[in-house]
Amino acid sequence: MTSAAVLAGTSAAGATDLPAKVAAPIEFVRVCNAYGNGFFYIPGTDTCIRLSGRARFEVGYQPSYSRGSSGTATPGDLTGYRGLARINVDARTQTSYGTLRAFLRLEAASRTGIPTIRSGTTERIGNAFGATGQDQAGRVQQFFNTDKAFIQFAGFTAGRATSFYDFYAHDFEIIASSMSSDVNSTNLAAYTTKLGGSGFSATLSMEDPSFRRTPLFTAANAPGTTLAASPLFIGFSANGTPTGVGFIDIVQRNRMPDFVGVLRYDATWGSAQLSAAVHELNYANPIAGAFAGTNLGSAVTAANSVAGPGLATAYGWAVQGGVKVNLPFIAPGDTLYLQASYGEGAGMYTGFSAYTGSYIGNTSSIQGSAFNQYFNDAVLNPFTNRLELSTTFTAVASFLHYWTPELRSAVFGSYGELNFASGARARQGAYYGITGAGPGTPGTRFFDVSQVLRDNYRFVVGGSLIWSPVRDLDIGFETIYTQYGVTSGRVLDLSKFPAQNAAFVNNLSNTIRTKTSEDTVQVRARVQRDF
What we know:
By secondary structure, the protein is mainly β. It has helices at 2-17, 115-118, 120-124, 347-350, 424-429, 432-435, 445-449, 502-506; strands at residues 40-41, 47-61, 79-95, 98-113, 128-130, 140-153, 156-161, 186-194, 200-207, 220-221, 228-236, 242-249, 258-267, 270-282, 286-293, 313-326, 335-344, 362-363, 373-374, 378-380, 387-389, 391-404, 407-419, 456-467, 473-486, 491-492, 514-515, 517-530. A 16-stranded antiparallel beta barrel has the order 2-3-4-6-7-8-9-13-14-16-17-22-23-24-25-28. It is globular and about 95 Å long.
């Protein structure tokens, strides 16, 4: 009994010494209603998060006027295809200063075929890389972009976001062909404040200039180099006739950020916005030793190849006004956008190159085109070493109409012009006899019909029809017609007769072929699911 009692007592004491088993707390995912549908609390925090995304398929058709290659271009494609993936992460926390928000968006795509789907623009800006295979080079492209990565807090926005300058940014378009500013990925730091309870707000934004640059005009690379350069007269004969040129490095550097100011009004009837921007243009030093022509019989060396007088900096600017009008009396969801923009040395702010191609001095999205459009923001005067700014203006109208809640369509039109500084083209032609590059020698037939640095225009009209049988699913197509051309005179038709060089054209006994404009039609279909 004693032994049994001792054992029993020992067992009881041991049991009380063991730690009690406590069930771990279970963290349930809780719905967060503070910021709209789809948000939930991150377990263990007071931060709400929403995960969303997009899957898209597109196929497009555009005629090609040639199957021949020219440089790195590979014309001949009639169709193009794109598969796109998008992932969004939106995290928000309520603080005593208001909502703290972080937003991320990553996009990736496989793109092939016609140039407006494959897009040389995305390669030039570093968002894509192209294939190198015999049949794939210039046709197959992989795309990746950190489209958004910004923080918003107490009126401040910092990170990679849509430019605050933009208003109508191809909102109703599949092909994004109108001439309007649409820089949805740039690095910026901005502050926005509401002006009382009036519906007005104002924003001041410091933005990355790299995503608003159109190259300065380049006639030819400096001799013996691959550097983008512009000639500058540094050799003259006894009577003052230019006889030799040095070359200036005209690659623009990141020096001053772009500054954007915005005044916006929002009301039940719609919105209105006035935007303004200042954009620096700059170039670098003379390229040592690079020279063409003669210099009073003395050879030019790295020691005496110096820049002439002038400024290495100029300041472009742009203004834009837009209005968005809600039209529920026609049908719920109906909306009209009207917008116009004007710029000097700031073509990316007016959106003049939006469809044809950006981040390049001249190009065409029409394969086998007779001639290219020129987009240069400025031309370096070879006599004064000063930048002469180009002007652009654009206008766009876009209307969205719901036939039924599931069926909608959009119609839009846009027009724009680019004009180079008065006399800039003739001044560039002054060195043609020395370098063999540029618009040609003024007074010759070749100069009169050369495409180089010609003032030009473009207009586009288009329409779409989109069916959404269920929420967040779009099935539709869009058709556009676009034309670009020179605003005066004619240019050589190099698609039909590419051998029309200066020697051939200036022989007045030869018949030449010219035209004033180029045009095309594109049709694109899309299937898209957002979630």
